[in-house]
Amino acid sequence: MIHIYKFFLLLFNLPAIIKGAKIGKNSLLAPGYDIIGVNLSRLKIGDNVLIGRNACIGSTFGQGQIIIDDGTNIGRNCQIQSLQKIHIGKKCLISYGVSLIDHDHLLTDPKISPMDGLLTTPKPILINDNCFIGAHSFILKGVTLGEHCVVGANSVVTMSFPKNSIIAGNPAKLIKKI
Length: 178
Ligand SMILES: CC(C)(COP(=O)(O)OP(=O)(O)OC[C@H]1O[C@@H](n2cnc3c(N)ncnc32)[C@H](O)[C@@H]1OP(=O)(O)O)[C@@H](O)C(=O)NCCC(=O)NCCS
Fold this sequence. Notes:
By secondary structure, the protein is mainly beta. The protein has one helix at residues 2-18; strands at 22-23, 28-29, 43-45, 50-51, 56-59, 65-68, 73-74, 79-82, 85-88, 93-94, 99-101, 125-127, 132-133, 138-139, 144-145, 150-151, 156-157, 165-168, 173-177. It is built from 1 helix and 19 strands. Bound molecules: coenzyme A (COA). Residues 95, 134-135, 150, 152-155, 166, 168-169, 175-176 line the site of coenzyme A (COA).
């Protein structure tokens, strides 16, 4: 039975492994994740990690590092795009439809279209251990969340917060401390 389980883990993870991802023990990238044109050589997933269906995870220009530590669970339809570094700590619960992107399109020059593909300088994102990120939230470049932070559903997190903060809204503001 365990052999069949491990066979399916390998089967589902294989396209990502071929693309260079390092995936730990008992971890699963569920089917439907992006692989065409995506560079996964800088993706490192720890042990006992679950990433739900239809994940869109990529290293922009093959430069950005993505680290997901042991025991973290990420829901369906996540967007994780790194040009520099995105690090999600241990045993975090990231709900469905959450985006983490450490850079932006260059939007400040009226002569340059967003379609020209120029990007701003990236700033790393760090989500420390045991955080909960509510459904459909967006974590913007440069954000650090301390351990055990909670992000309310549909929040846009534009700045960093210390450990044990419960934040929510657009832009996310502190609503309580744990
Ligand atoms: C953030 C959250 C955990 C807070 O829950 P709570 O501690 O029970 O908070 P309360 O309901 O007491 O709300 C406190 C205040 O924050 C506001 N608030 C709560 N959640 C909010 C959200 N997601 N966005 C904006 N404001 C929010 C409330 O309106 C309230 O404001 P007020 O004091 O002005 O009345 C919860 O509201 C939430 O968003 N949970 C995530 C749900 C989710 O994504 N589930 C997916 C499961 S995998």
